[in-house]
């Protein structure tokens, strides 16, 4: 009669785990052991390049020979990752003698422990055993992962809020919340990162920009306080102060706050100012990078920002100030001398002046150029042109912000 396995979460930090074998199976198993903080001893005559890199980096101890019984001295667990059944059986015999649990890649029925299929969702780990059928375990695991990532969390059913960054700050003993500056990506709601999504589903307060994908907000729990940052009155700098204050106040009151910003928070997103404001108020801040429109918008239009033999650099520049503005920090004359790709954000209004300046300082008028409006959304529009004509063409086509302008030979690089 086969009995059910007894599930456990092994706390391996600083504990010796022996892995026998240095091939593909070991390559897959070792990262999770290292992630758990295990003291990994790898016994194998040869290693894959990935394992070799970890050994070279001092992340594990490598014994470059075949297994010997004394390798299990001090071990809490052994993973046999070799496909020679005789050799594997002799390792598991030594392990059994010493009462050390032994996972066997070659023969699950002979093993004293099984590795489950795992999905990690922030602090939550879901481990699935499929009754001896690893494919069944993976199928169930994938379904659970999808539920955690997409369905259950927004309704507040599955994911327990966690406050790994919570700290006692300037509140005199009361628990301080936290702020996460999360990049929401360029427009397609699926382009937020897994971590950004998780924090969003755990948030008590979400302070969102105009450009964040609306569908992400649509899925928030009903009890979440949603602050629309684009509706905050006063001029741009006053509004920023107001936003900083909201972030700090809510976090000091104990809330988990997500500051959700279009693209990446640090690419023309004023994320740095918000981080400084929180830090000076003693509020813990996490920054979750996002997929920036400066790369995603060209990509969505079939334009790679670099391409072998075509462009070895790309420069992202703000066009929100005209080239002759005394406040501009951009050396347009120097940019005109580059051969690579120029990606201009917030540049539609000043496009005629920008392109004229680039041409005046030496960039060829025939350089391919494109404008991508509302990239990665259902209303995306793409215009292809040349540097001397793109401003007029964009006007004729009535292109509007948000739009990214791409200048360089990469614009046509993928044309057949
Ligand atoms: C204030 S900046 C913020 C950029 C953002 N942090 C990022 O990394 O994408 C706003 C500008 O980003 C560009 N942008 C943002 N989303 C876009 C999209 N979906 N399509 C085209 N351009 C976009 C436009 O140039 C817009 O004017």
From TrEMBL:
GO terms for biological process: cobalamin biosynthetic process; methylation; siroheme biosynthetic process. The active site is at 209 (proton acceptor), 231 (proton donor). Residues 179-390 form the Tetrapyrrole methylase domain. Its EC number is 2.1.1.107. GO terms for molecular function: NAD binding; precorrin-2 dehydrogenase activity; sirohydrochlorin ferrochelatase activity; uroporphyrin-III C-methyltransferase activity. Pathway: Porphyrin-containing compound metabolism; siroheme biosynthesis; sirohydrochlorin from precorrin-2: step 1/1. Keywords: Cobalamin biosynthesis, Lyase, Methyltransferase, Multifunctional enzyme, NAD, Oxidoreductase, Porphyrin biosynthesis, S-adenosyl-L-methionine, Transferase. It catalyses: precorrin-2 + NAD(+) = sirohydrochlorin + NADH + 2 H(+). It is an enzyme of class 2 (transferase). This is Uroporphyrinogen-III C-methyltransferase. It comes from Micromonospora orduensis.
